[in-house]
Write a structure and sequence with these properties.
The chain is α+β, with helices and mostly antiparallel strands and 83 residues long. It is built from 1 helix and 5 strands, in the order E-E-E-E-H-E. The relative contact order is 0.19. About 20% of the residues have low confidence.
Length: 83
Amino acid sequence: MLKIEAPVKEYTGISAGIGFAMGVALVEEKDLRKTQKEYFKKKGYKIAKYNSKTAVTTKSSEKTDKVDKTNTLEDLDDSTDLR
C-alpha cells in the first residue's frame, strides 16, 4: 500500500483520479498507474510505502482542538445574501 500526501495538507477531493481526505490518500501500489505517479511527483506530492500494521495512530486525547471557524446557518441573520 502507498500513502500519498498532497502539497496542501487540508486538501480534500480527487486528484488524478485518487480520492484525498485532509491531504492524504491510501492506495494499493498495483492500482496506481505510472502516469498518476508521474503526475503526483511533478506536482510535489509525497509518495511512500505504507504499512497499516505499523502505522502510528494518535489517541483522541492527544489531538488538539484547532478548528477554523466557519459560519453555520445559526450564524447567519436575515440580511445575509445566500445567492
